[in-house]
Amino acid sequence: MKKIRYIIYMFVALLATTSCEDFLNITPDGQSKRDDQLSTEQGIEDAMYGVYSQMRSLSLYGQELYFKTLEVMAHNLYSTDNDDIKSLANFEYDNTYVKSLFEGIWTAMYKNISNVNSVLNSPLVADAEKYPFTIYRGEALGLRAFMHFDLVRLFAEQYTVNPDANGIPYATEFSLKTPPFESLKKNYEHILADLLEADSLLADEDEYADERAYMLDRQIHFNRYAVCATLARVYLTMGNNELATKYAKKAIENNGKYTLKEKTKVKDDLAGVLSEKECLFGVYYSGWYTTVSTVLQQLNPRSSLYLRKNFQEIYERDASGSDSRFAAYFSEDKNGDDIIYRLCKFTDVYEKNNTVANRPANLILGINMIRIPEMHYILAETLLASDYDTALSHYDAVRVSRGLEPLEGKTLTQELINDERFREMIGEGQTFFNMKRLNLNIPLATDASKYHTPAEGIYVVPIPDIEIENRN
Q1: Among candidate residues 248, 145, 152, 238, the one with its CA nearest the CA of residue 192
Q2: Packing angle between helix 372-382 and helix 241-252, nearest 10 degrees?
Q3: Strands (DSSP E) along 21-63, which ranges?
Q4: Beta bridge partners of residue 307, listed in sequence order
Q5: DSSP codes joined into one string, 194-232
Q6: Cα distance between residue 390 and residue 95, in whole Å
Q7: Confidence at residue 340, expressed as pLDDT on a 0 to 100 scale
Q8: 443 SS3 class
């Protein structure tokens, strides 16, 4: 049954892609055409598919905000010969390549936020009170908050360091121009308002499973559990442990839909596909293999990224047992007489081995955006001081599911949680944000005895020049 449902969904998604691309070509000047498209349920769904398709663009989560730019900035990955990547790793924000890179991220994100706003401002969605319009509105609000949150984490100060700092524009209209800048505190107010409304609107989404193609697979939609998980991220970043705990628990307590996988299922679970058990939200992407393999699997010193020098040491710290992730996430290549480890965590094994016909039909190609393990790490951290035993149980839950023994002989600390986050989430674009939130030094990928420090201004990316120039 699941195979049939997935085939139906992919057929609908294919049809919608054509429509959504037309939608994304509409400028604000094409008001009447846009309004016509958003006057029907099908038109709204096509527009939402368009938003999701844009999230997988190279400037966004299809590359830069996932396994490339953010991982280079965290020094999880590095380049041997590419001066542009070296400039990024050195946080040379005045470098031409680096400036262009972040300009692309900024522009692509606000363009997609504008597309979301077009849906949100359409008459059928703006005042939604009934299904399916409540679903459309809930997803769109959640996505708007999600994308703004990542922009804030890149281009503004850490909230707990300076909540009164300058923030970014929070866009709520369909427009090619971004609205005025506002304070960081106001940014977070808007992010929370959108997420909390989305949480309310999507509360009953499970009741409508299978009612239409759009509802067939909620993993590839910004569903109610993705909203809760994002709220947990946001509250953790704000230093509100109580509410971060509340929403991380809600994400985990998901009617048994998603849970930690067994250690024997770690291998290839993320290799070009969404984790069946652990992915709370992912983006469908049939071209994921080509993008990933070009950067992570080639032995080209100009275009390839290599793993930080001491990555093996981090997997060996406090590791009693056999960590299934090491064989699942890394592969060995030979370069002359040298063995080079590559990040193969996202490499589709069926594509790599030319056995695509053998891939189970229920697997969804794409990018895992939020997974259950992160929620356990959030709970381990937020409960560490107030409920140590429960914090430890969440920390151990992930370890045991990965083949390690529960922590023994040591007291659980923030440092141990950070190490475990690294081991699990390497390559997923979250390490840099976690280090920024905690105001940590960043050990160099090539020499962990040396650091970049927060005092260097590494954690706040300057607003792109093009944004400032367009306001003059």
Answers
A1: 145
A2: 150
A3: none
A4: 77
A5: HHHHHHHHTTTGGGGTTSSGGGS-GGGS--HHHHHHHHH
A6: 46
A7: 87
A8: strand
pLDDT in tens, 11-53: 444 444 444 444 444 444 545 466 778 999 999 999 999 999 9
pLDDT for res 7: 45
Per-residue confidence (pLDDT) for residue 33, from 0 to 100: 60
Instruction: Output the CA–CA distances (angstroms, integers) from residue 431 to 67, 70, 210, 418, 454, in the order listed.
Output: 11, 8, 36, 9, 15
pLDDT of residue 8: 42
CB atoms within 10 A of CB 7: 12
Distance (Å, whole) CA 155 – CA 102 = 9
CATH assignment, 2-469: 1.25.40.390
Q: Write out residues in the chain with pLDDT < 50, as ranges.
A: 1-28, 30, 32
How many whole angstroms from its chain centre is CA 313? Answer: 26
Residues near 304 by Cβ (< 8 Å), separated by ≥ 6? Answer: 79, 295, 296, 297, 298
Tell me how far apart the alpha carbons of residues 308 and 76 are, in angstroms, rounded to a whole number: 5
Cβ atoms of residues 364 and 290 within 8 Å: no
Question: Whole-model pTM?
Answer: 0.93
Please tell me the distance from the alpha carbon of residue 23 to that of residue 443, in angstroms, as a whole number: 44
